[in-house]
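In this section we walk through a basic example: taking a raw amino acid sequence and producing a predicted 3D structure, encoded as discrete structure tokens. The instruction is simple. Fold the sequence below.
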Amino acid sequence: MKALVMTNGDYCDNFSWYRSLANQFNRIYCVDGAAAAAVRMNITPHVLLGDMDSISVADRKTLEENQTTSCISYPSDKDYTDTQLALETARKEGSREICLVGGTGTRLDHSLANLFSAGRMAEEGLDVWFAFPELTIHFVVSGNELRLEGFPGDTVSILSMKDVSSGVTLTDFSYPLEGALLERNWPIGVSNVISGPCPAIKLEQGLLAVFHFLSRPS
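The resulting token sequence is shown next.
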């Protein structure tokens, strides 16, 4: 099953892009204040969840009155973020592919927490990624290869999510690598550029976050 998680971050005004994306998923989870974006874009989530500290009374009423949306409310005094709870709920309900939208925003701490939480789920075998009209963020786990669907000229930044990620090989990039070592605390993989038709990122050990900036936004 494929799940879309709408988190309470930034959304652009390209409503049709979000609606088209939402139609590709079996389940839609809306995290707390992301209800504002869902209501504004006329996207009906299957589940609304969180501690409800950032959702407006009007948006909550709109979704709760929709008989297809179930509400799961958590206390504000808890160990996990609302996005982590949404990711875990999606996994428990059988999702093996999870896409996050609104996953970054003005709260850098939440943006980083979302990134690391998604990376952990990728290590546990789920296909997890972030989607924006002009950017996708993928993860590469140990022993795997990511083939990007991009075009020459696209900018790609590759960051280690572990202290060290080793055996990094890049093909069809302006700055290729062969069995290289990337360190989390001193990144050298920022602003590479796709240079060929089959860009690929291969990893022997570690965890990579791959930021693919689209030269032809969807």
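Looking at the output, two observations stand out. The longest strand covers residues 164-171. The domain at 2-133 is CATH 3.40.50.10240 (Rossmann fold). In the next section we compare this with other chains.
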